[in-house]
Amino acid sequence: MFRDSKVRDYPLSLRHRDGHVTSVLYNASVYRDEKGNVQGVFAAARDVTERNRAEAELEKHRHHLEELVKERTSQLEAANARLEAEIAERRRAEVSAELARVEAVKEKNRLEAVMDTLPVGMAILDAQGGNVRSNSAFETIWGGPRPETRSIDDYAHYKARWSDTGRPVQPEEWASAQAIRQGKTVVGQLVDLEGFDGTRRVVLNSAAPVRDSDGRIDGSVVAIQDITEIRRMERELRQSEERYHSLFNSMTEGFALHEIICDGKGEPCDYRFLDINPAFEQLTGLKREDVIGRTQSNLLPDEGQRWIKAFGTVALTGVPTQFEEYSPGLKKHYEVFAYSPSPRQFAVIFKDISERRLAEEALRQSEERFKVIASSTPDHLFIQDRELRYTFVINPQLGLRVEDMLGKTDHVLLAGEDADRLTTIKKRVLETGETVHLETAVTPLRGERQVFDGFYVPRLDAEGRIDGLIGYFRNITERKQAEEALRHMTDELARSNKDLEQYAYVISHDLKEPLRMVTGFTGLLKERYKGRLDAKAHEYISHASDAALRMQALIDDLLAYSRAGRGKVSEPTDVADVLNETLKNLAISIAESRAVITHDPLPTIESNPTELILVFQNLISNALKFRSDRGPEVHIGCRRREGGWLFTVRDNGIGIDTQFIDRIFMIFQRLHTREEYPGTGIGLAICRKIVERHGGRIWVESSPGTGSTFCFTIPDAGKEQ
Ligand code: ADP
User: Fold this and answer.
1) What is the DSSP letter of 70?
2) Which helix (H) or strand (E) holds 205?
3) Dist. CA 561 → ligand 1 center (Å)
4) 699 and 650 in contact (C-beta within 8 Å)?
5) Which of 89, 376, 584, 681 could form a disulfide with 668 if both were Cys (CB 3.0 to 4.6 A apart)?
6) What is the full DSSP assignment across 430-478?
7) Measured in angstroms, how far is the CA atom of residue 578 from the centroid of ligand 1?
8) Nearest to 427 by CA among 402, 394, 456, 463
9) DSSP states of 665-711 as a string?
10) pLDDT tens, 592-650?
11) Contact by Cβ (8 Å): 452, 480
12) Which residue's CA is the nearest one to ligand 1's atom 21?
């Protein structure tokens, strides 16, 4: 109390002397002076006994009430607990329902997201096959706005054909229709569809039924995959593979794929064949089964390290290479191209150039030979390019030198007229590619006209295009001059021969008349003065008449000679007939001399038969006339000879001294006296004239004592010999 200065309603029990107790509430406060010193205490006590009793009573009631409340409360609590449990249960159910709903929404969103991002067309269909939901890929594949689809019947609007047969797809054949109607899952129908925008696509169409909780079919899910691009790529890939394969198999170059083998230090030390093509087998003579999987060191030990080094670099660096090599193992020259298709591998494409090498070598040798030949020929050789500039010259003509000509054209080197003419011809050779044979006269800038004979030949480059021309010409100026002189002489000779013939004819003709008079009058002298003249006079008269007769014979022969060889020489003549006729004419002398006459088979030729009879007649009668002591044997031979026929009349008579064999063909030339052998010496001259008129030649091969063979040729019509 002193501490707090006050006490309020402090309960106290006051025990009275009688022993009862009074309950009071004691209140007191301290009384202090100005300085704070306690002066005294004010105290009061209030009796609360009754109140306490009432309170105790109340307490008792309250307690009872409390008991009641307690009981009720526990009852309530039990009910409450039940209720709370129920509420909690319901809450949980609500939460999980909410969760499920959220989950379902999520699921739906997910599904939609999946559907919309899938590159596969997806559609969800109801139990009738009507469209419930489809994704954008589905719309794209079908090409834009589709007609309303409420049932399978509406599928008729969807145009498509089966890829394999091309037959239109019927509505009930669609995978979705089968899923809905038969509960089938159909996977991968291959279909060519025509979208509603007209685009065509190849698709794989699949569908599966969707069932409700009772297992009844409630719809279907359709997946449609556009494989147009894949198919195109597949096709392209196949084509490219086929192309590669056909190239691989049909290329004439050898192809081989290898892997490089390295030693411990990573240096290439060998390689292994992985694949080769048929050309490889042909070019190397190695068989596929002997090559694949083998290494170079094992298969071609002679090749050494060169190829391994070269190819190793290609395989390891990827830098392609190209070279020509001789393979001692395969004994061939190869042109090789190597590249690396993938790391540590290399492919080699090569061709056999052995032939080209041989050809090059042959070319080199032939060029060498050509140079030797060209420099020893008297001919003028040159090459001109397409602009007709001389690029190569051997034996230049017309006083020009090689160095004058190289790089120049004819217009610089020749007179304008010649240059124009030759250039025109040369241009034609360059344009047409034809070879031109030419004989031409060219006048040099200084000096005499020269004549050349030769060719312009087109010159071809490696591709066969005309890149210039080659000329080779012979200077035939001298020959031309000689020919000219000869022709002149021949013409002259022919003319003088003609004159002579005419002359001989006229003379012999004109001489006949006075000769007849001489013979006539000597005859008259002989008859009329018979016995009136002395013997000497008669002898002179007789000489005169002999001479006149001989002269007559000579003149007749001369006439015969000048007439001979005037007939046509191109009648078909059976020489056997000719010979028969001849022998008929000679029948008497043949019989007299008992000659044996034989002959080869005889042809039909072009000649003059009457004149040919004359030739045979002269030769055979000579053979009989100049016979030896042996019985005469005459053989008429005949042989085909280039461009005509060779006839021979061989006898076993007296023969002719070689020194006279030319003379006997001349007119009136004889080797014997008339007494020894009669004759005038005109026969062989006539033979020669006739044979030469036929374009042939006549000669004799003989040796005295053994016999003679007279030979003559008759060329085929139109040819000279
Ligand atoms: P001919 O017979 O009138 O003497 P030819 O011109 O026929 O004149 O003959 C010239 C000459 O050639 C003959 O005189 C003769 O010396 C020689 N001769 C011709 N044919 C023969 C022959 N078959 N054998 C030997 N000599 C011949």
Assistant:
1) H
2) strand 200-211
3) 16
4) no
5) 681
6) HHH---EEEEEEE--SSS--EEEEEEEEEEE-TTS-EEEEEEEEEE-HH
7) 22
8) 456
9) GSTT--SS-TTTS---S-HHHHHHHHHHHTT--EEEEEETTTEEEEE
10) 999 999 999 999 999 999 999 999 999 999 999 999 998 899 999 999 988 899 999 99
11) no
12) 622
What would the pLDDT profile of 567-601 be if each residue is shown by its tens digit? 777 889 999 999 999 999 999 999 999 999 999 99
Query: Regarding beta strands 633-641 and 644-650, do their DSSP bridges make them parallel or antiparallel, or are they unpaired?
Result: antiparallel
User: Which residues have CB under 8 Å from 459's CB, separation 6+?
Assistant: 383, 466, 467, 468, 469, 470
CA terminus-to-terminus distance, the chain:
189
CB 672 less than 6 A from any atom of ligand 1: yes
Ligand 1 pocket test, pick from 593, 656, 701 with the greatest ligand atom count within 8 Å of Cβ, gives: 656
Distance CA 269, CA 262 (A): 5
**Beta bridge partner(s), residue 713:** 646
664 lines ligand 1 (CB under 6 A): yes
Query: ∠ CA 609-612-616 to the nearest 5 degrees?
Result: 135
Cα 701 to ligand 1 centroid, rounded to whole Å:
13
Token duo for residue 230: 């894949």
686 lines ligand 1 (CB under 6 A): no
Amino acid letter, residue 350:
F
Angle at 564 between CA 563 and CA 565, to 5 degrees: 120
Q: Which residue has the tokens 């070689």?
A: 658
User: Looking at beta carbons, which pairs linking 463-466 to residues 24 or more positions away fall under 8 Å?
Assistant: 466/386, 466/430, 466/433
Report the amino acid identity of residue 537: A
pLDDT in tens, 31-47: 888 887 888 888 888 88
Burial class (CB in 10 A: 0-12, 13-18, 19+), 399: exposed
Count of other CB atoms within 10 angstroms of residue 164: 9
pLDDT at 328 over 60: yes
Annotate 579-596 with three-state secondary structure: HHHHHHHCHHHHHHHCCE
Angle between helices 609-625 and 575-585 (to 10 degrees): 50
pLDDT digits (tens, 9 = 90+) for 394-413: 888 888 888 989 999 999 88
Tell me the two tokens of residue 518. Answer: 């001489």
Look at residues 710, 703, 616 and name the one whose alpha carbon lies nearest to residue 665. 710
Rounded Cα distance, 712 and 699, in Å = 6
Ligand 1 binding pocket includes 632 (Cβ within 6 Å) = no
Q: Which residue blocks in 294-353 are alpha helix, DSSP H? A: 296-299, 306-317
pLDDT of residue 555: 84
